[in-house]
Automatic annotation (TrEMBL):
CDD domains: ASKHA_NBD_AcK_PK. It is an enzyme of class 2 (transferase). It comes from Streptomyces phyllanthi. This is Acetate kinase. Its EC number is 2.7.2.1. The lineage of its organism: Bacteria, Bacillati, Actinomycetota, Actinomycetes, Kitasatosporales.
Length: 412
């Protein structure tokens, strides 16, 4: 029996999201989520797509990731898709931080695990959870190739001029301080899909990708390679996000310590959880913000304007970085759904060859599509992102290429 299935796992500190795909047609067989792991009120939601079955929900304590994965496997097994199936070719893990070292998806061995662990100081919230997910999956299927797909990998092609902060080089190197970027799987998928939409090879096109979800980041992609992105050492830098501030004068932090008497943890929480759209107007959901704007709410209007202003700055900056731009593309929850955001971000940029057709922009669709007028010099597009499909594709390609050959890494 040929092994053509890939399980994609996205392990957070208290949740596991998963998708099982069949790589023959890249179709989804099952999707689901275990939430509140470690609490009394854990919940599992499982949808067996291949059988057209109904979503099944179960509640009750799931003490740890091992119990969570066993519960997932039991759900999959009900439809003959369990983790022990010989048709499972590999497990692909989303790993947030791969530092400078991991420039490609990588088959996981002990050295790779140790390196992901070594990167915990630069990703204290994410890498430990990702490691737990990997170790648990390894324990359940020790014979199966497990692949790490890094959020940072796509950005490792950034030139040093974009990746370095202008601070003392020795201090930066000692603490591995540089701009790594995140959402790389999405930027890779969407930039390639945009080239496809334009009917051109990725090597031929220059694209500005705007990944606008609860977290948000922009990237400049030249000929399929990332040359600049808005997130930095952590996912805090760059655009205004749902709850994160994005760009900020670092002296704000000194001021909050010296004058405001705040602790580092308090400032961390302020900038990551109580800033962005939430900090500005109390809501982080763009649907709610638009509803309030339409009702004449001034705070929501200002939050929206600040969000758009920052976005425009990045579009202009990345236009200048790329020199020639073939497409500006919107993706993720806000980018795919919020027509007013797309309209406002592109407004008044005709001199850059950018325009949005109001009718095309108003269309709601799950398909990749152009929203610029037919005679536009630069295409404006909406391309739904699919990070799980990208992780599965990269995992399957690597396992197919390397079956039995062990790990592959590119050195620092
Ligand atoms: P993501 O992180 O990509 O899942 O995006 C989540 C965000 O997308 C939400 O917080 C909303 O702000 C936004 N969003 C989702 N659906 C819509 C919609 N129909 N209109 C506007 N914004 C939306």
């Amino acid at each position: 029996m040929s092994s053509t299935r890939v399980l994609v796992l996205n392990s957070g500190s208290s949740s596991v999201k998963y998708q099982l795909l069949d790589m023959r047609d890249r179709g989804r067989l099952a999707v689901g989520l275990v939430e509140r792991i470690g609490e009394e009120t854990s919940r599992l939601r499982h949808t067996p797509l291949h059988s057209g079955g109904e979503t099944r929900e179960s509640a009750g304590p799931v003490p740890d990731h091992e119990a969570a994965l066993k519960a997932v496997s039991a759900e999959l097994a009900k439809d003959g898709l369990g983790l022990d199936s010989p048709e499972l070719a590999a497990i692909g893990h989303r790993v947030v931080h791969g530092g400078k070292r991991f420039t490609e998806p990588t088959v996981i061995d002990d050295t790779v695990l140790a390196e992901i662990e070594r990167l915990i100081p630069v990703a204290p919230l994410h890498n430990p959870a990702n490691l737990t997910g990997i170790r648990t999956a390894q324990a359940l299927r020790p014979d199966l190739p497990q692949v790490a797909v890094f959020d940072t990998a796509f950005h490792t092609t950034m030139p040093e001029s974009a990746a370095r902060y202008a601070i003392d080089v020795r201090t930066a190197d000692e603490h591995r301080i540089r701009r790594y970027g995140f959402h790389g799987t999405s930027h890779a998928y969407v930039s390639r899909a945009t080239a496809e939409l334009l009917g051109r090879a990725p090597e031929e096109v220059n694209v500005i990708v705007l990944h606008l979800g609860n977290g948000a980041s922009a990237s400049a992609v030249r000929g399929g390679k990332c040359v600049e992105t808005s997130m930095g050492l952590t996912p805090l830098e760059g655009l205004v996000m749902g709850t994160r501030s994005g760009d900020l004068d670092p002296a704000v932090i000194f001021h909050l310590v010296r004058v405001g008497g705040m602790s580092m943890d308090e400032i961390d929480t302020l900038l990551n959880k109580r800033s962005g759209l939430t900090g500005l107007c109390g809501d982080n959901d763009m649907r709610e913000i638009r509803r309030r704007v339409d009702e004449g709410d001034e705070r929501a209007r200002l939050a929206f304007d600040i969000y758009i202003h920052r976005l425009k700055k990045y579009i202009g900056a990345y236009y200048a970085v790329l020199g020639r731009v073939d497409a500006v593309v919107f993706t993720a929850g806000v980018g795919e759904n919020a027509a007013p955001v797309r309209e406002a971000a592109i407004a008044d940029l005709e001199t850059l060859g950018l325009a949005v057709d109001a009718e095309l922009n108003a269309v709601r669709s799950d398909e990749a599509r152009l929203i610029s007028p037919a005679d536009s010099r630069v295409a404006v597009a909406v391309v739904p992102t699919d990070e799980e499909l990208e992780i599965a594709t990269q995992t399957y390609a690597l396992v197919g290429r390397d079956r039995g050959a062990g790990s592959e890494r590119v050195g620092e």
